[in-house]
């Protein structure tokens, strides 16, 4: 198993992921690691239905996703990991999920968040989670599409959008 992309994207599996990231990374397995999604069976069913049959999809709580990635079950697979938020990515890393770079794709705006790009808004908790991951050696970048230039997230938070 090789992890070809670890990404935070509030939308998880959607058109941009399937049409841009899957071909660019040649992923043949998508693992959604979310502590809230397994409680939403209808949303899980919709996401699984959207994925082509030749791509394996696993939607698990973070702890189960870490176990799955540590097992031989995904041997030989090119795995894309999707997180719904920074807390899930930090939790996964603390449990031993072996990703070295984290792509920030889409993090919705909300009360108390600062907007740093047109698709990224970060709360104080997000910033602390990302700083924690960075201290652990995880490279954190913002990149909407594979053709976009990667941007270091620290540069983005120094110049938020007004």
Task: Walk me through this protein's architecture.
β2, α2 and β3 form a beta-alpha-beta unit. The strands form two sheets. The protein has a seven-stranded mixed β-sheet with strand order 3-2-4-1-5-8-9. It has a two-stranded antiparallel ribbon with strand order 6-7. α3 packs across α4. With 162 residues, the protein is an alpha/beta fold.
Features:
162 residues, alpha/beta, seven-stranded mixed beta sheet, 6 helices, 35% helix, 25% strand, globular
Distance between the termini: 42 Å
Global Rg: 15 Å
Strand content: 15-25%
Q: Specify the structural class.
A: alpha/beta
Helix content: 25-40%
Q: What kind of sheet is the major sheet?
A: 7 strands, mixed
The number of strands is 9
- Helix segment tally: 6
Spatial strand arrangement across the major sheet: 3-2-4-1-5-8-9
Low-confidence stretches: none
Order of helices and strands: EHEHEHEHEEEHEEH
Secondary-structure blueprint:
Layout: E1 2-9, H1 15-25, E2 29-33, H2 41-50, E3 56-60, H3 62-70, E4 78-83, H4 86-94, E5 101-106, E6 114-115, E7 121-122, H5 124-135, E8 139-142, E9 151-152, H6 153-158
Parallel strand pairs: 1-4, 1-5, 2-3, 2-4, 5-8
Antiparallel strand pairs: 6-7, 8-9
Helix pairs in contact: 3-4, 4-5
């Amino acid at each position: 198993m090789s992890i070809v992309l670890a990404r935070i994207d509030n939308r998880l599996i959607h058109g941009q992921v399937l049409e841009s990231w899957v071909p660019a990374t040649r992923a043949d397995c998508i693992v959604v690691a979310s502590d809230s999604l397994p409680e939403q069976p209808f949303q899980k069913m919709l996401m699984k239905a959207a994925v082509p049959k030749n791509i394996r999809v696993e939607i698990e709580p973070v702890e189960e996703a870490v176990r799955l990635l540590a097992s031989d079950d995904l041997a030989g697979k090119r795995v894309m990991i999707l997180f719904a938020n920074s807390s899930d990515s930090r939790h996964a890393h603390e449990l031993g999920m072996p990703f070295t770079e984290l792509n920030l794709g889409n993090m919705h705006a909300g009360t108390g968040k600062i907007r740093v790009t047109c698709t990224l808004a970060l709360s104080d908790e997000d910033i602390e989670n990302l700083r924690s991951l960075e201290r652990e050696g995880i490279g954190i970048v913002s990149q909407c599409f594979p053709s976009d230039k990667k941007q270091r997230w620290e540069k983005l938070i120094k110049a938020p959008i007004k």
